[in-house]
Amino acid sequence: MESEISPVFVALPIPKQGLLAYMPPQGMDQLEPGMRVLVPVGLRRRMIGVVWDPPEKRDPQDLDIELKEVSSVLDEAPIISREYRRFLQAVSWYYFYPVGMTLEEALPNLLLSSRSSSIEKILNTRKKTRVRFQIPPSAPCRPKSLTQEQISVLSVLKKRISGNLFSPVVLHGVTGSGKTEVYIRAAESALALGKTALILVPEIALASQLVAWFYNAFGDLVGLWHSKITGPQKLKTWQDIRDGKIRIIVGVRSAIFAPLDNIGLIVVDEEHDDSFKQDVRLRYSARDLALLLGKLQNATVVLGSATPSLTTYEKVIKGEYELLTMTRRVHDTPLPKVELIDLRTKRKKKEIPRLPWWMSEALYKAIDETLHSNEQLLLFLNRRGFATFVFCSDCGHAFRCPHCEITLTLHKSFGPKGNKELLVCHSCGFNLPALPVCPNCGGQAISSKGIGTERVLAELVQVFPNIRAERFDRDTMGSKKKLINTLEGFRKGDIDALVGTQMITKGHDFPNLSLVGVIWGDQSLHYPSFNASEKTFQLLTQVAGRAGRRGKRGRVIIQSFCPEHYSIVYACEHDYESFLREERNKRVGHFYPPFGHLINLIFSGKLEEHVKKISFEAQQIAMRILPKIQKRYTKAVEILGPSPGIRPKVKDLFVWNLLLKSQSRKAVRSLAEGLLNKLSTVPKRGVRIEIDCDPTGLG
Questions:
Q1: 597-693 — its CATH code?
Q2: Where along the chain is Zn(2+) 2 bound (predicted)?
Q3: Rounded to an integer, what distance in angstroms lies between the CA atom of residue 241 and that of residue 235?
Q4: Binding site: residue ranges?
Q5: Which CATH code for domain 148-331?
């Protein structure tokens, strides 16, 4: 009597919760979880999926229908370990995201893709990929000795790594205290024990710099992981990790999915940064996933920052995370002197050149003194472009994006060569030539208002004609070569001044940088988010920390229209503890994180009336479910909205939000789960529903 052949369960990159069942191909009674397979989907489509662990509960439909057969098996052995599958399964569950699409987010696109056009490319890259590794530029010389604080911190980290237990540690170190050297030596300890290490940073620019430090220390054991790496390069890195050739990965948030096994150390540098939170598709937080991965692998997780997030520090207060501090800079350099300028004060007439409105007399004099001392300066404004608002002063017509409900930004030097004058949408990328004629009335009275890094640079050069200045933002740093050359040129003294966005505020060490000027200190303060004050404090503290290294005290000038706001005052005083107390007091009564938990449902579609209708229907369903949730949990759940998104229209899609809030994570998740189950049976009429767990802002 023939034994019954069991079906295999496959995770496919499709928007369906759960797995699809197939029969194994003839001659192969058993396929191991973690192997890729080619399977038929629907009538004509083929897709690549991954054999997954059987679910605890079978779908009754699988028992009643004739299952299709796996077309072919792509791997001789599993390419995804059991531990890696456990990690992705947990990610899928927490973020309400299908496990197959979670796989697609995690794996290199030459291993798995939902696009039909990519299947042949994947099938043709099954052999080992050979890609020459580009050696990063040389890093600054490492110190021969450590400070006493570095020694103390490193001693604790070594004990935690060798303990083989999940150990979450917050490393609160002021800017310039030498955290990078601590990370390198902690990774050295992990490797000595036969373990691996994962180093996460928020920006590609920072990853490209940090990998040089690690490469100089560990050579070819180090790999780099971020979105600018080509498909073949990422596949080669993936293969080298699995073969044990790479044991340290340095990368941005997506590096959390690098297939490292036996991890001893995970570092999340600048852990407070919002860049660790992805805001499309799988809306995960790499910081939170680092803690999950560390728990699954019994690793030491170091959350490093000069300004730890309130969410992280609350865990320290509760005793859940260990706190290590580094209060002194290397070389005992004092923290920079900060001067706060009130931009509301009218400028007095003096015998100085005519200055642009954003350049106070204090900033002008500081720049002049810095240049005469052959030192360097950094001007920070977190806004790209030349002008943020272009309009016709004859008829009032404003130039707006036809796909998004926002105004177009004027760029006078756009494109790879910087030779195009365009109006650009910073949301969807739409652009058109900046013509001097109004399309509405035909007039030529085109005016522009607002400011961006491009305008700051242009007007800086007008005031100081001999200055050697460069922009450092997404528009100018489009290539890895340009980014590295600019950073190296600034370190060598070939550039006097950098004008940049937040790309330049994180982790960079410039020995001769003595002046930092913040053009508009309260810009981020007005963003409609519960943590706007915290982000303002962190941003100002981080950018101020770039000034004054190698023994010489730096100078910082912060210009603001709200100089009395506590986030700006405490940033000027380098007073993290006082800011923390005031911010905690403001949030605790409203149950905002970390004193409450948020889940945002995002509705989007091409017809606004359909989007609005579905979002209100979801709100009514949630209200009907709510009484059962309230009986089960003692903490209340609030249903806020629905309401239009902060950007009501993005890329031709109208956006509405429905926010769920509660002191209890279980309660808010239970409501979200019940709501999603009910919505699965509601006709969507072209409306897409996305889930954002623990949002840092609204869509």
A1: 3.30.70.600
A2: 401, 404, 425, 428
A3: 10
A4: 392, 395, 401, 404, 425, 428, 438, 441
A5: 3.40.50.300
- One of 3.90.226.10, 3.40.640.10, 3.40.50.300, 2.60.40.1470 is the CATH number of 333-383+453-588, namely 3.40.50.300
Tokens of 160: 């935690």
Rounded to two decimals, the pTM is: 0.93
Asked if 490 and 376 touch (Cβ cutoff 8 Å), the reply is yes
Q: Does 148-331 match 333-383+453-588 in CATH topology?
A: yes
Dihedral angle, C-alpha 111, 115, 116, 121, nearest 10 °? -40
What tens digit of pLDDT does each residue of 17-68 get?
889 999 998 877 678 999 999 999 988 888 999 999 998 776 655 555 788 9
**Phi, psi at residue 449, to the nearest 5°?**
-130, 165
Measured CA angle at 354 (ends 353, 355), to 5 deg: 105
* Under 8 Å between Cβ of 651 and 404: yes
List, as residue ranges, the binding site for Zn(2+). Answer: 392, 395, 401, 404, 425, 428, 438, 441
Range with the poorest average pLDDT among 256-260, 448-452, 478-482, 644-648: 478-482
Q: Tell me 177's DSSP state.
A: S
First to last CA, the chain: 60
Residue 458: what are its φ and ψ, rounded to 5°? Answer: -60, -45
